[in-house]
Write a structure and sequence with these properties.
The termini are close together. Helices cover 29% and strands 19% of the residues. Strands 6-7-8-9-10-11-12-13 form an 8-stranded mixed β-sheet. Strands 5-4-3-2-1-14 form a 6-stranded mixed β-sheet, with no helix packed on it. The chain has 362 residues and is α/β, with parallel strands linked by helices. The chain has one domain: Ribonuclease Z/Hydroxyacylglutathione hydrolase-like (Metallo-beta-lactamase, Chain A). The chain is globular and about 60 Å long. Bound molecules: zinc ion. The site of zinc ion (ZN) has 8 residues, from α2. The site of zinc ion has 8 residues, from α2.
Length: 362
């Protein structure tokens, strides 16, 4: 079956680094890079970019979903690279110019505004780069529900902005400088010992009451619905579950359908229980669920989050982990997969990540 969308989930430790290609007959793929993982992912990303076809390695959209170090860390050297200057057509990023009222006084503007400087060509930075061109230079934000914010890409995919919404973008404005400062001087990271306890009753695990994500940076995440030749993919970034669910419900409503069945959903926030809520799985039932984390520092993915996926997903769904480790391997237990009717996939080699191919349907 012909492939419409290829999604590559690189091993970016605790972070996200995704290469998405929308394949087109007789043309090069429309290509999108979503985040660069933490800073130490850059050599791996660079090696991956080196393997793009030399004849046309264009990145049509380089998306910096939000300013946490596990997403922006590898994007800073990427955006400053010769490769980016030559081959990136558009950078999608909500920076200071897109926020209404950054309130606090700058503490480390010279360092903290690296990405903004790269994009605008501030003194000492790379020449200005195309920035949010697909959005006429404005902020990338979802329309207030029940509205829909769609971007038309000539000869490319149909893209709908799911997050952030206006309140989440405003919340980032209030803490912009502190958040950026923190992102660029991340807390000391630590590998967590994998919990080896049994998973037990998944319905009880899924129903466990867990706190919701309330951090301004995660809430400001750019999350997108990408549709191409009948295939569909939700890129959840680290967005809030209720924001994603509300936007996806608005899309379904606008199309007159009860729920928006999608091919693949990249779980928000690395499969955190604070972001993966049951509503999200029911409003956008998917065939493939993508989980991007090795568990460093935060122990993602959380068991209740994956239990919500497994118990709420359509039968026959596949979980894709970009790391095989003690934490993720428990989900391949034969009793669980047969009882709940799902499959699990891991990278074939530890350093390659996983590649998911979504077929043409139209
Ligand atoms: Zn993250």
């Amino acid at each position: 079956m012909a492939t419409a969308i290829r999604v590559e989930m690189l091993p970016a430790r605790l972070g996200d680094c995704l290469l998405v290609e929308c394949l087109r007959p007789r043309r090069r793929p429309w290509r999108m890079l979503v985040d660069g993982g933490p800073a130490d992912t850059w050599p791996l990303l660079q090696a991956r970019l080196d393997r793009l076809p030399a004849t046309d390695p264009t990145i049509d959209a380089a998306v910096v979903t939000h300013i946490d170090s596990d997403h922006i860390g590898g994007m800073i050297p990427f955006l400053a690279s010769d490769f980016a200057r030559e081959h990136v057509r558009d950078v999608w990023f909500n920076g200071r110019p897109h926020l209404s009222r950054p309130r606090s006084a700058p503490r480390s503007v010279a360092q903290g505004e690296t990405v903004t400087a790269t994009l605008t060509g501030a003194p000492g930075a790379q020449p200005g780069m195309p920035w949010n061109l697909a959005f006429s230079g404005g902020a990338i934000a979802a329309a207030p529900a029940p509205g829909i914010r769609e971007v038309s890409i000539p000869n490319g995919p149909r893209i709908t902005v799911l997050s952030p919404n206006a309140p989440r973008l405003a919340a980032l404005g209030k803490v912009w400088f502190e958040t950026l400062d923190k992102a660029l001087r991340p807390d000391h990271e630590r590998p967590l010992p994998a919990p080896l306890g049994p998973l037990g009753d998944l319905a009880a695990l899924a129903a466990r009451r867990t706190a919701k994500d309330s951090t301004a940076a995660n809430g400001s995440s750019i999350a997108l619905l990408v549709e191409h030749r009948g295939a569909s993919l939700v890129l959840g970034a680290d967005a809030f579950g209720p924001v994603l669910a509300e936007s996806l419900r608005a899309v379904a409503q606008a199309r007159g359908i009860p729920a928006l069945a999608v091919d693949a959903l990249k779980l928000p926030h690395h499969g955190s229980q604070a972001n993966v809520i049951g509503n999200l799985i029911s409003v956008a039932p998917a065939r493939h669920f993508l989980v991007s984390s090795n568990g460093d520092t935060f122990g993602h993915p959380d068991d209740p989050a994956i239990a919500r996926v497994v118990t709420g997903a359509p039968s026959g769904a596949t979980l894709w982990f970009n790391y095989r480790n003690a934490r993720t391997q428990r989900w391949a237990d034969a009793t669980l997969t047969s009882r709940h009717g799902y499959a699990v996939r891991y990278p074939t080699k530890p350093d390659t990540g996983v590649l998911v191919r979504l077929p043409v349907r139209s």
